[in-house]
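Milestone M4 deliverable, item 7.
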Amino acid sequence: MKNLERKKILVFPCGSEIGLEVYRSLKHSTHVELFGASSVDDHGKFVFERYIGNLPFLDDECFIPNLTKIVEENRIDAIFPAMDSVITKLKENEETLKCKIIASETKTTAICLSKNRTYSFLSGLVATPKLFETLNEVNKYPVFLKPDIGYGSRGTLKAENNKSALSHLSKYPSCLILEYLPGREYTIDCFTDFKGNLLFIGPRERKRISNGISVNTKTMQLSEEFEKMANVINDSIKINGAWFFQAKERITGELVLMEVASRLGGSSSVYRAKGVNFAALSIYNAFEMPVSIMTNEFDVELDRALDTIFNIDINFNYVYVDFDDTIVINGYVNSDMVARIYKFLNEGKIIYLLTRHEGDIYEALEKYRLSNLFDEVIHIKNGEDKWRFIKHRNSIFIDDSFAERREIHQKLAIPVFGLDVINVKFGSL
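Output delivered:
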């Protein structure tokens, strides 16, 4: 997309699963300058380099005025909503915000926000779950209770009997009472361009689910049944950009629609591994740039788990780093450490190699293609203490050796790190 000028894109809320997937999809894009914003300081604060916190909550009367101010001050070109209720709210206020909202039209987002509205709109066009108005209509358990508007598995319950259903509905009165579908569950990731053309349909099985989020999912071949359902939805609801629907099997194997979402799915990244970047496609599409989609022909299995990022509140200008067993381990370059060094260089840090390497260190650097990585190489040959060669107090020291780290910390009182804390974010908390 060479004709797309670099756009400033604000992701809100940036710490949601969707917001984090947008970040992962776009962080290396030359077409996008990413900003993240949230009402609460969640994981987005640790990920987005340009982060704006403490926004009013979505239902606060100050939310839109505050967001409008952020858009003006940062010259934001478009907002990427990263939660269902946010999509509808922002799309309704697109003119006030004076920037593009990367989403389908308001009528579409309103239909997709409500499962009851979705079922009513698509009734007779695709199979939808049997809906009971009250528990008195239920003649067979279990039933599935699910909030009409909700996220993930919050407020859901497979009710085995009338007593558990009554108890749950007393806590979550907005729940729909649905037939229980015991079969396999699928997400079908789709993309529709701004002209209404359905360009991509990608089914995947939801093999393991945690808190309503698919944490293990695998791509599948597109069946006639998936394709037919996707086309019916696309022809019935005016969708623009990335979207998905979820379906589950009855005991007979019949595929039943569970919900439609007018946004990309958090685990749609499984198709990113095949070459389909839904976040990037959605941005190009929002600015009405024609796109085409190519996929690699192999299967991908995605498995997700909690990740860890450390935010360390220190400021420094100099980095002293060891070589043996730190940058090179067992004859192989520690690519994580080298990536960390390049990040330091991008931040303007001065990098010193401080090593007792036996042999010619310059030969070793040449061998491992690391010759130009350091601002200075300090090669200790006579057994002197490393701390004597650290000349800057606003420094950090990285070494695999605990003894070396302890001595330098005791002598110089500077921060010292082993290899288990490479994935850190330095700066003010």
